[in-house]
Design goal:
Strand content: 25-35%
Order of helices and strands: HEEEHEEEHHEEEHHHHH
Structural class: alpha+beta
Low-confidence stretches: none
Length: 297
C-alpha cells in the first residue's frame, strides 16, 4: 500500500458514488409507486442534481461532488443525497482540531487531507414516516487514514416494530464483521446522537463509528461498505408501510416540533456540519440536512 493510497482513495470514492446512485434510484421508485394514501394524488418527486465545486485559497481545484435534493415529493418533503471527494490543506483551526482529536501534532508541518463520502438526510411528508440520516466516509492525511459513518432513525411518532426492524438489519450487516461490532456501534450512536441541552436522544438510534482503522484497509473498507448496504433494507420497508397512513394536525405538529430538535443537533453538535463549513465546502450542500419546515414551542 502506497503512502498516498491513490488506488484505495479511488476505490472508496467510486463506491460512495455507486451507493448514491442506488439510493437515488430507490427513492425515486418510492415516489413512483406511492399510489394510495396521503399525497398520492400529487406529482411524483424527482431529484434536482447540482455539481458542487470547491476551490483552495489560491483558487486551485480542491474537489467537489454532486448535491442531489428532492423537494415537495409525494413521499419525501425534502431529501438530500450528497456525495463528494475533496482535498487540499486544512486551515489552522481544522489543523488544531485534527491534531488534538487524532494526536497528529505533525499536521501543522503537512496539513494535506483528502476526504470522500456520502451523506443523506430525509424528511418525510407523512409524520408516520420516520426521518433518517446516513453517511459513510473515508478520510486521509499523510499521518493516518480512517473510516467513519453510520445511520440513525429519527421518528416523531415512534413505532417499536419499526425501531426493531431498523436495528435488526443493522445488526445483521455488522455481524459479518464480528458479533461485538453491533453492540459497540449502537452504543456509540446512542452517545453521539444525544442532545445534552435537551437531555434526550434525537431519535431511536442506529449505528455509528469514527476513526476506524484496524491497519487492514481492505477489511475496514468492507465494513464501511456493509454499513452503507444496510441502509436501504433497514429503511425502505418502514416507508412502504407508513406512507399510506392517514394523519391529522396533531401528528403534523409533532413532526414540526421534532424537526426543531433535529435542526438544533445538526447546527450545534454535528461534526460533519462543522467540518464542511470549516473547510469551505458548498454551504448549501453542507446544510441540506436541515428540514424544510420546523417549529419551536
Amino acid at each position: 500500500m502506497s503512502a498516498s493510497m491513490e488506488t484505495e482513495k479511488q476505490t472508496a470514492s467510486a463506491w460512495f458514488r455507486s451507493l448514491r446512485d442506488e439510493i437515488v434510484a430507490a427513492f425515486e421508485r418510492l415516489e413512483d409507486t406511492h399510489a394510495e394514501g396521503p399525497f398520492a394524488d400529487q406529482t411524483a418527486g424527482r431529484f434536482e442534481v447540482t455539481e458542487t465545486k470547491r476551490a483552495s485559497a489560491d483558487g486551485s481545484d480542491a474537489g467537489g461532488g454532486l448535491m442531489s435534493v428532492m423537494r415537495g415529493g409525494r413521499v419525501f418533503e425534502k431529501v438530500g443525497v450528497n456525495v463528494s471527494t475533496v482535498y487540499g490543506e486544512l486551515g489552522e483551526r481544522a489543523q488544531a482540531a485534527m491534531a488534538a482529536r487524532k494526536g497528529f501534532p505533525e499536521m501543522k508541518n503537512d496539513p494535506r487531507f483528502w476526504a470522500s463520502g456520502i451523506s443523506l438526510v430525509a424528511h418525510m411528508q407523512n409524520p408516520h414516516c420516520p426521518a433518517v440520516h446516513m453517511n459513510t466516509r473515508m478520510f486521509w492525511t499523510p499521518h493516518g487514514w480512517w473510516f467513519g459513518g453510520g445511520s440513525d432513525l429519527n421518528p416523531c411518532l415512534e413505532y417499536d416494530e419499526d425501531t426493531a426492524h431498523f436495528h435488526a438489519v443493522q445488526k445483521a450487516h455488522c455481524d459479518k464483521h464480528g458479533e461485538a461490532e453491533y453492540p459497540r456501534l449502537k452504543a456509540w450512536a446512542d452517545e453521539y446522537f444525544y442532545i445534552p441541552h435537551r437531555n434526550r436522544a434525537r431519535g431511536v438510534g442506529g449505528i455509528f463509528l469514527d476513526d476506524h482503522n484496524t491497519g487492514d484497509w481492505a477489511a475496514d473498507f468492507a465494513f464501511i461498505q456493509d454499513i452503507g448496504r444496510a441502509f436501504l433494507p433497514a429503511f425502505l420497508p418502514l416507508i412502504e408501510k407508513r406512507r399510506v397512513q392517514a394523519f391529522g394536525e396533531a401528528e403534523k405538529e409533532a413532526q414540526l416540533v421534532h424537526r426543531g430538535l433535529y435542526a438544533e443537533y445538526n447546527l450545534v453538535y454535528d461534526r460533519g456540519t462543522k467540518f464542511g463549513l470549516e473547510t469551505g465546502h458548498d454551504a448549501n450542500a453542507v446544510l441540506m440536512s436541515l428540514p424544510p419546515l420546523a417549529k419551536w414551542v
